Amino acid sequence: MIITLIAAAAENNALGKDNNLVWHLPNDFKRFKKLTTGHTIIMGRKTLESMNGPLPNRTNVVITRQKDYTYESCTIVHSLDEALAKCNQEEEEVFIIGGGEIYKQAIDKADKIELTRVHTTAEADTYFPEIDTKKWQLTNEEYHPKDEKHKLDFTYQTWKLKNSNG
Questions:
Q1: Residue 63: what pLDDT?
Q2: Which of 12, 58, 92, 164 would bridge 121 by S-S if both were Cys, CB 3.0 to 4.6 A apart?
Q3: Number of folded domains that form the chain
C-alpha cells in the first residue's frame, strides 16, 4: 500500500488559516478529486469540518483526540497508526489530506507526496512540513500560470521517497 500525502502549499509551506484554504484553485480541486476518488482518504477532524463533511466516492477516515466524536459516513479513529490499520491492505494507494498536524505525523510514513506548490507566500496558522530533499526526490513537475480562474501561478509536484519502489 502506497501512502501519499496530498496538499496545496505556498512557497513558505502555508496551508491554511482559520480552518480555510488561503486561495481558490479550481484545477487543483479537480486534480485532487481525480487522484483521490475511489480511495481511502485520511484526515484530521478540523479538515473534515472545514470541508462541511465527508467527500463522496471515497472512504473517509478521521483522526481525532475526542473519544466520543462521531460523524456520519466516516470511520473515526484516534491515531494515525489506527487510521492506517483501518485501510484495506489490498488497497493500492491511500491519501492523507491534512491538516498540518496529520501531515507532520505522516511524512515519515509516506511513500509519495502530491504537492501543489502555490507560487506565493501566505499568512497561515497551518503549515505543510518541510520536504527533506535528502529523503525525497522530485519526480514530476507541471507548471500552471495564473489565468481567469486562477489568481496565482502553481506547479503540481510529485515527490517520491528515494530508494523506494512506490
A1: 98
A2: 12
A3: 1
